[in-house]
Amino acid sequence: MDCQKLKxxxxxxxxxSRVLLEKVYLYTTAGDQVLPEFAEFLESSDSYQDFVxxxxxxxxxxxxxxxxxxxxxxxxxxxxxxxxKMLVQNIRLKGEGIPxxxxxxxxxxxxxxxxxxxxxxxxxxxxxxxxxxxxVTSIGGTFTMLDREFCGIYGLYKYRGSVIMEEWQVERDPVxxxxxxxx
Length: 183
Description:
28% of the residues lie in helices and 37% in strands. The protein is α+β, with helices and mostly antiparallel strands. The chain folds into 2 domains: 3-75, no CATH class; 80-176, no CATH class. A 7-stranded mixed sheet has the order 3-6-9-8-7-4-5, with no helix packed on it. A two-stranded antiparallel sheet has the order 1-2. Helix 2 packs antiparallel against helix 5 (65-74). The model has no long low-confidence stretch (mean pLDDT 94).
């Protein structure tokens, strides 16, 4: 396939996919020429889906913005390609997210899913591709989540039933605390 055919296929793609595909096009071309590092990928592809598949399959690029965009488009669980510092799986939810307690106050970290089971991933700064997840907010201070006390500043992201926390500035690793029966 060549750049012109890729551009035509993207123009004919479903509207919901077009925004991400146009970003893929912008990051892999200059003018109407494919960048040399992506030429082989494009030549071996018959469709925009193939092109995205080849980029997504190149795990050497898993930290790049382009790979994150391809991961969004693929809608597959990409978290398996990164090593979390902490992972808590199959959390049963009682509300609209994972409870985060600040003293007597509480907020819910959204999961990006309506499912009643979630996962919590905690990554070091830069430990995952933040472009593939949806940024929600940042939280800082001392707070409790899933019977663990966190102390520091974290970026909070959501992705398909998971809450992802990225350590931005951490005073210490999380420590286990007594469970709060109210949660």
